[in-house]
Design brief:
The complex is a heterodimer of chains A (154) and B (106).
Chain A (H helix, E strand, L loop, with lengths): L7 H14 L14 H5 L3 H9 L5 E2 L3 E4 L3 E2 L5 E7 L4 E8 L6 E7 L3 E9 L5 E9 L2 E11 L7
Parallel strand pairs in A: 1-9, 3-9
Antiparallel strand pairs in A: 2-4, 4-7, 5-6, 5-8, 8-9
Chain B lengths: L6 E8 L2 E8 L22 E8 L2 E8 L8 E7 L6 E8 L4 E7 L2
Antiparallel strand pairs in B: 1-2, 2-5, 3-4, 3-6, 6-7
Classes of the chains: A alpha+beta (154), B mainly beta (106).
Chain lengths: 154, 106
Amino acid sequence: MQRRHFLKNTMATGAIALAASSGLLVPGSVLAAWNKKAFDAKDVQSALKGAIGTELTEATDKIKIKAPQIAENGAVVPITISSTLSNVKSITILSEKNGTPLIAKFNLKGKAEAFISTRIKMGKTSNIIAVCESGGKFYSARKEVKVTIGGCGG
Amino acid sequence: MAKKSSIKIRAKAKNGVVTVKALISHKMETGLRKDKKTGKVIPAHFIEEVVCEHNGVPVLEAEWGVAISKNPYLSFKFKGGKAGDTVKLSWKDNTGKSDSLETKVK
């Protein structure tokens, strides 16, 4: 499967067209083109641009990031993102100071609620940025997580 | 069950909202670490996409990077589900490997 660097919307339709034309509309082929450009981006701006098509987001208090204040082990940082915004289409998670800031993008379909919980890796103390897409606009919230480096995180 | 799946999944309905919790067994190698013995870079090996379906209709499509932790955990919620519905989770990694598992909502 070829990797393509199309913008998000052309990517999605392209992937579906490809899957449909080859008669292979199986789960897993829907997102055939992994967004390499966004995930390889070294700074927050270009990662955002690659992931959601814009680097401009509006700060809001309607996104809640639940994460530990201090993470002893940067390899496993549990985080939960939830939002009271209506009709959230996607949730994107970034860690500001990671080598490649973009962590993941969750595309919520139809009935999915604005709630995602997962575990992420963080290189060092940094802000976690959560971006929610709602009504064609992008809203963001951030929260700092301190990452303890060293053997005895007490 | 002959082969053990890489996925553990549970889905529970409460007041019309289904909460799905899933654990995937995967090493999620970043491609940045070096093998201590040989000094060679361990090639990246990570899950790129996760799709979850409710009764065959996608409710979540996730694109992941290398910064999702080893043996990823994922939890999410969706409306309009009830006990007995099926929830299917599938993943695909950057080497083309994939797996999927279906479960019933409790």
